[in-house]
Amino acid sequence: MSHTVVGVFETSNEAQTALQQLTSSGFMRENIDIAPQATTGTSEQHADDDSIGSFFSNLFGGDDKSRSYSNYARTGAIVTVHAKSAQEAERAADILDDFGAVNLDERASGTTAATDTTRTASTSTDSTIPVIEEEMQVGKRTVETGGVRIRSRIIERPIEEHLRLREEHVHVERNPVNRAATERDLSGFKNGEIEMTEHAEVPIVNKDTRVVEEVNIGMDVEEHDESIRGTVRKTDVEVDHLTEEELRRRRTEGDRSGL
């Protein structure tokens, strides 16, 4: 929404001073128009008169108020500020008033009461209501929900087995006798040697490694459908057309409340 702020000054010097104050206060020069006093009796005067009359006619409509304002503004200088907001328009109006903008209502009516100078006129163009609507975006992401940790380690356990072992022991017996020697005895009557070896069983331990179990690690994948519910917002714009009868009723109620 844009706002137009108009200040009318008695002299061009006052208008130039107000212009300098506006620019030093942050207003862009290209958003400020200034119309100096017209030169009497020239063609430029008639062109300026027509432009001033058209300006106030567009601002207030073709009524007596616009004609009164136009007649007085033709004798002075006009500063027009195109503001971007209502706050900026209010600040421009304050600057114009502080630096000599005249009260056209008082001048047009012929009064000279020492009251505050007039608030300069402002107009606004079309306003726009943005229609905003939310949309819900549904996606998916992977999260960790659990898992399995498998550790393997070697442990020892005691084992006991029972065996029967056999051992051999050589023993020698000497028995005294007294008999006559036989031929067999005589055949063995010579140097000789006899050996007999003892034997014994001892335990032998062997280990046989065998696979007794296999642990398989795998992943099962399942899919399921899930309904996602939520709410979204949007701007709902309702347009009500005002009739002439309703406007007249409002004006009547306003007049009554002002009494």
From TrEMBL:
It comes from the Bacteria. It holds the Pfam family DUF2382. Residues 129-239 form the DUF2382 domain. InterPro entries: DUF2382 (IPR019060), Stress_Response_Assoc (IPR052967). This is YsnF/AvaK domain-containing protein. It comes from Pontibacter rugosus.
